[in-house]
Design the sequence.
């Protein structure tokens, strides 16, 4: 059961404020929210984490820690053994996309190294021994990869990776073998959704051995049940949390946590490579960059078309969202992500000039379950999370 | 290969259904397989004429019979687990189950020949050569899509790499 430990000293606890890399508006920020790149690696002389013993996992962790020390990486970041963290802190790391989802389910021998700006992480003993991840705002596919490959090379100098000359890097999932590289761009495509343009994109991506997944919220594995005597929607005419499907977005390299494009929440989509074997890293990046630019151009054209032909529909959507953000008292994560999309669209199309994209993107991270629990300093059930989330929205969109 | 129903998960089972005397083969993931079996068993999905559907036998599961070895000697992972989940237990599973794993790799990636980074950081020359090969192939893609800006930058990179490798500079088209 959820162990509540919210005491945080600034030198130790996981920070819950939005990560520093979000502060800077990346290229193509009006459509590309962020991009992330992960490399999956395993050590040569141990079975993979799902089959190796707890003792072996501890040895893997020790070996990674000594590599981090030898490379002086501990000066630029910090290693968190997950068993030392509260569940809310673990969730916070997952919501910031620094650890994969499986580590939130079972992190008994897991840990994560995180750089100070929280733009790079090395998750230990998830589905694979190492999952090295780099993040950046906007569409910075090449930049993220450059950071990641340098770190990977430094680690490869100290650790002996499981590698086969013909099959490349050997990974737990057959879907990651070869380069072990999963590069993704997170795209906000409200206009293409409004104009029913997503089906063609999915088809085109499949032909390029890429995938477009819809973001889907997941109930956090530590979600507290509703407190006895309370019920969702208590005191309100309708159930304010009826549409809620989860309280956060989590990182998952297999794509299993994401939904179909038709089920996407917040008009958020992830464009990612499927093939990792038989294509080099550079080819993966090249094709992903081009596919992303192509989709960004299509979304821009769709927004132009909406502004020209259906401006009232657009304005109505944005101002209704502002109304709810300014007045709601309880709001579920799924509904808040829908509002987030409308508000971001308002900023992207110049209707909401007093807010910035950065502010909105920080709000997306801050309204997730782990972040909300950390901010409020207590364990919360779904109803309490809804109240905290509505408070946050009202504070940001206070009526002038 | 990806599941032909949901197009998301790894297909681990070949499913054959006989309708109107015709055998239809589809590749499914475990989730879609159980849904398909439920639908077929409850008779809600009638893809052929009703009499034919009534007379058709129960769907047969044509899972490939696992060949020896069935268990990885190193980590004790069962071949069936690998086929069902698309996940292996250790690096040795790739060699132990190569006969069954390789078709899955081809279906997923279209290849079983690694290209790109190697694990040895010291092998700089090999990496540069591989880089050069990749950049040449990207240059062809860029020219095909008339992306001349990218092509010019790639051509510069290729020249630099060739200089570093001490290779003679072939004229680029």
Sequence:
């Amino acid at each position: 059961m959820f162990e509540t430990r919210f005491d945080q000293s600034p030198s130790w606890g996981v920070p819950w404020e939005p990560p520093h890399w979000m502060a800077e508006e990346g290229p193509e920020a009006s459509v590309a929210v962020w991009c992330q790149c992960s490399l999956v690696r395993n050590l040569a002389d141990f079975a993979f984490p799902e089959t190796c013993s707890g003792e072996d996992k501890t040895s893997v962790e020790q070996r990674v820690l000594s590599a981090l020390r030898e490379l002086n990486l501990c000066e630029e970041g910090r290693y968190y053994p997950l068993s030392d963290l509260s569940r809310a802190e673990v969730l916070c790391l997952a919501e910031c996309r620094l650890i994969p989802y499986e580590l939130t389910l079972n992190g008994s021998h897991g840990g994560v190294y995180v750089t100070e700006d929280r733009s790079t992480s090395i998750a230990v003993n998830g589905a694979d021994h190492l999952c090295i991840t780099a993040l950046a705002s906007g569409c910075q596919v090449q930049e993220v990869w450059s950071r990641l490959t340098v770190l990977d090379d430094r680690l490869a100098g100290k650790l002996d990776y499981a590698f086969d000359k013909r099959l490349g890097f050997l990974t737990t999932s057959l879907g990651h073998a070869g380069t072990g590289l999963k590069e993704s761009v997170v795209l906000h495509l409200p206009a293409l959704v409004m104009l029913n343009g997503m089906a063609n994109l999915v088809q085109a991506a499949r032909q390029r051995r890429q995938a477009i997944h819809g973001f889907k919220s997941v109930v956090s594995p530590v979600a507290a049940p509703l407190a006895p005597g309370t019920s969702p929607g208590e005191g309100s005419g309708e159930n304010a949390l009826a549409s809620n499907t989860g309280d956060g977005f989590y990182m998952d390299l297999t794509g299993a946590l994401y939904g179909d494009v038709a089920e996407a929440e917040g008009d958020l989509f992830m464009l990612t490579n499927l093939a990792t074997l038989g294509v080099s890293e550079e080819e993966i990046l090249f094709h992903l960059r081009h596919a992303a630019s192509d989709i960004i151009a299509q979304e821009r054209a769709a927004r132009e078309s909406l502004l020209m032909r259906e401006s009232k529909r657009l304005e109505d959507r944005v101002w209704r969202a502002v109304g709810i953000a300014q007045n709601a008292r309880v709001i579920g994560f799924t509904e808040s992500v829908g509002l987030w999309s409308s508000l971001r669209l308002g900023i992207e199309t110049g209707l909401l000039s007093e807010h910035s994209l950065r502010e909105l993107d920080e709000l997306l991270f801050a309204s997730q379950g782990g972040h909300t629990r950390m901010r409020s300093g207590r364990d919360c059930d779904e109803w309490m999370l809804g109240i905290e989330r509505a408070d946050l929205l009202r504070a940001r969109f206070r009526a002038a | 290969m990806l599941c032909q129903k949901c197009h998301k998960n790894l297909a681990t089972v070949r499913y054959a259904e006989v309708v109107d005397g015709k055998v239809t083969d589809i590749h499914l993931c475990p989730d879609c397989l159980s849904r398909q079996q439920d639908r077929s068993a409850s008779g809600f999905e009638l893809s052929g004429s009703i009499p034919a559907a009534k007379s058709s036998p129960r769907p047969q599961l044509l899972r490939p019979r696992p060949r020896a070895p069935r268990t990885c000697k190193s980590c004790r992972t069962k071949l069936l687990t690998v086929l069902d989940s698309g996940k292996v237990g250790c690096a040795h599973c790739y060699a132990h189950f190569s006969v069954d794993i390789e078709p899955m790799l081809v279906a997923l990636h279209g290849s079983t020949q690694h290209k790109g980074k190697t694990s040895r950081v010291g092998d700089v020359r090999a990496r540069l050569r591989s880089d050069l090969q990749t950049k040449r192939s990207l240059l062809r893609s860029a020219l095909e899509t008339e992306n001349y800006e990218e092509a010019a930058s790639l051509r510069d990179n290729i020249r630099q790499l060739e200089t570093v490798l001490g290779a003679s500079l072939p004229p680029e088209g």
Q: What stands out?
A: Residues 1-12, 223-238 of chain A have pLDDT under 50 and may be disordered.
